[in-house]
Amino acid sequence: MVPPESILTDRHLDIFFIVVNEFCERFSYYGMRAVLVLYFKYFLKWDDDLATTIYHTFVAFCYLTPILGAIIADSWLGKFKTIVYLSIVYTLGQIVMAISAIHDITDTNKDGIPENMSFHVALSMVGLSLIALGTGGIKPCVAAFGGDQFQDHQEKQRSTFFSIFYLSINAGSLLSTIITPMLRAQECGIYSQQKCYPLAFGVPAALMVVALIVFIIGSGMYNKTAPQGNILVKVCKCIAFAIRNRYRHRYSQFSQRTHWMDWADEKYDKLLIAQVKMVVKVLFLYIPLPMFWALFDQQGSRWTLQATTMDGDFGLLTIQPDQMQTVNPILILVLVPIMDSVIYPLISKCKLNFTPLKKMTVGMFLAALAFIAAALVQLQIDVSVTNIKKLTMGQLVKPNSPTHILIYFPENPAAVPIRHWSPGKDHQHAGQTGGRLSWRLKFSLQPFTVLTYLIVCVLFHRFFNGYSSILNITTGTLDFGSTVKNKMSTYANVPHGEAKFHIKDNAGNQCDYSLTLGFGSSYTLLIPSTFKFGTNCEKSINTALDIKPNSFHMAWQIPQYFLITAGEVVFSVTGLEFSYSQAPSNMKSVLQAGWLLTVAVGNIIVLIVAEAAKLPDQWAEYILFASLLLLVDFLFAFMAYFYTYIDPAKIEAQFAHSDPKDKEKKKSLEMGRKDSDGNSNSDRKSSYTSHNEKKDVQSRM
């Protein structure tokens, strides 16, 4: 026999291809997903609710399709072909997403705004559908395919492979959530410079191409097992037969059986029925679990949107809102060894019976606390950030009196308040923005130019030119365009920090005006008709602070990330460990499919709750989710209290050697049942009754 070590050495290259493939695929998926909700909000111009809805719909499909991928691989194509074919679908989806984010495709007037947004939306939906099918389809195949490369006596080498495999998953997700938001923050474009979503989606697409090529290169080295039938399908058929058979014998004249799965005894052997009982027992405990994932997966939606309204300035480093998601994988790498090496041993020394189900209960409680922390953060944000109601009509209205001008800012998603001025005299003006913050300005007013802008893409902005000649105002790569007298400019966004505005007229005169812009703040610049180009020209420009800078820092999100990640470590890792310990040896994949299904259902719950609740304040929605999870957590604790732990190996051993006579009897009964299909119900009834005279001695699982 060849020593295991030499076999691993000879075959190490195929494992390399599989690990690199998984790293690139996870980088591609999590990188695209990190910026997805901001793409919906700022590129497709969707509101927060719609962006959240589509985001969680996509994630739900990503966790529904693994069941389809497992069935295809085990029943028809085999793992290798399934991975290759669905990876091609996956790659096409990423490429379509990158193309959908190119604003220049439909920007016919070259102003930086796509003219045909429906085209971009349609491409996005096609791309996301292909990605969901691809990433979900290969999810259950890659790890299992890697395990197939080892022989039965190479358990240690297989364990080492899985450790490296899951390390590549965490490394890919961590790096992508750091790098992709940085790519998004860049500016690119052919006609106008905008946030570079094509690059943010293009790099994950390129990584998926690399993943596919690397995996195919190793084709000749792989151990490819032929499809042998999917155990999930067999389990579903067994359960369906038991339910149908029980329904047919629902009347009192039929003798009852100990467990409802025993009604499958006519067609399936007792070993399979016993295994299905163990699986069903665990799946029953899965019923409350989706609520945990409903909260957990909002890190990429609601929490990311929350971060867009916070200050991301960390001194020398500015954190993008979508980069806050990196806190989760970083904390996982820190908390997993701490839990295993410190927390759990301490609890054990205290003589506390901290069972897996108790750990999962604590994990859900921590997730609920995380959303309470998010609600507290949101309350502080609501104090710091002004909520301004949207105006829907009017652009520039001149009342009957020639001495007054009334200015509206319509298309703005959160419109600037109406301003009403009387030229020619000192004017004291007080305005309110959303009923929270007030501003007051006193100045001697003549016909003027108004420039309104808000920072970090929270709002869109433009200026009104009341000056005697055409003005062009630019800052950095942003151009407000040439604006004639009494006309509005197009909207633009100005990043926070030190901004220098270049004001020019048709004669070539220029004035540079500098202003330090706070994170999330809004200003109004007033340029009177007495304004003159030349030395000290900036001194005649008046500045009014409409909305104070958002001083509430992103670092305040770290406690909620810590709580949700601690909950994930205690809940998710323990849940998988518990499921595997309570599952039959050949049905662990069934429980894996059930576990992934809870994630999908959790994201569907977000859609239902967010659409049904329609709460006016975001903090109230956080409290609602926390309350629902606490309620579900109590239900799960009640269910766990009555759960009895089992040893699947011992139960399987009882049925390992079935009585041949019992098999023959079952076969003859099955034939008799088929032959009696055309006879009366009384004949069929007597056949089953004679069989049911034998009581099943199995206890209720």
What keywords describe this structure?
18 strands, 19 helices, 5-stranded antiparallel β-sheet, 3 domains, Growth Hormone, Chain: A, alpha+beta, disordered N terminus, 54% helix, Immunoglobulin-like, disordered C terminus, 4-stranded antiparallel β-sheet, 701 residues
Description:
The protein is an alpha+beta fold and 701 residues long. The protein folds into 3 domains: 11-228, MFS general substrate transporter like domains (Growth Hormone, Chain: A), CATH 1.20.1250; 292-395 and 553-662, Up-down Bundle (Growth Hormone, Chain: A), CATH 1.20.1250.20; 459-547, Immunoglobulin-like (Sandwich). It contains 19 helices and 18 strands. The chain has helices at residues 4-10, 12-43, 48-77, 79-100, 117-147, 155-185, 197-217, 231-248, 270-285, 290-296, 302-307, 327-349, 356-384, 558-581, 588-613, 618-641, 648-654, 660-675, 681-692, and strands spanning 187-188, 194-195, 313-314, 317-318, 396-397, 405-407, 419-421, 426-433, 437-444, 448-454, 462-465, 471-475, 478-483, 487-488, 497-505, 510-517, 522-528, 542-547. The strands form 6 sheets. The protein has a 5-stranded antiparallel β-sheet, with no helix packed on it. The longest helix is centred in the N-terminal third of the chain and has 32 residues, at 12-43. The relative contact order is 0.12. The model is unreliable at 1-10, 386-462 and 669-701 (pLDDT under 50). It is a multi-pass membrane protein.
Describe the structure concisely.
The chain is α+β, with helices and mostly antiparallel strands.
SS-based class = alpha+beta
* CATH homologous superfamily identity of the largest domain: MFS general substrate transporter like domains
Number of domains: 3
Rounded mean pLDDT is: 77
Could you name the CATH topology of the largest domain? Answer: Growth Hormone, Chain: A
In CATH terms, what is the architecture of the largest domain? Up-down Bundle
Q: Bin the strand percentage.
A: 5-15%
Sketch the major β-sheet: 5 strands, antiparallel
| Gyration radius, rounded | 32 Å
The unreliable regions are 1-10, 386-462, 669-701
Overall spatial form: elongated
Number of helices: 19
Q: Say how many strands there are.
A: 18
The CA-CA distance between the termini, in Å, is: 43 Å
Main sheet strand line-up: 14-11-10-17-18
Query: Level of helix content?
Result: 40-55%
What's the level 1 CATH class of the largest domain?
Answer: Mainly Alpha
Membrane topology: Multi-pass membrane protein
Biased composition (Basic and acidic residues): 658-701
Transmembrane segments: 53-72, 84-105, 117-138, 159-179, 199-218, 278-296, 330-348, 360-381, 445-464, 592-610, 622-643
Family: Belongs to the major facilitator superfamily. Proton-dependent oligopeptide transporter (POT/PTR) (TC 2.A.17) family.
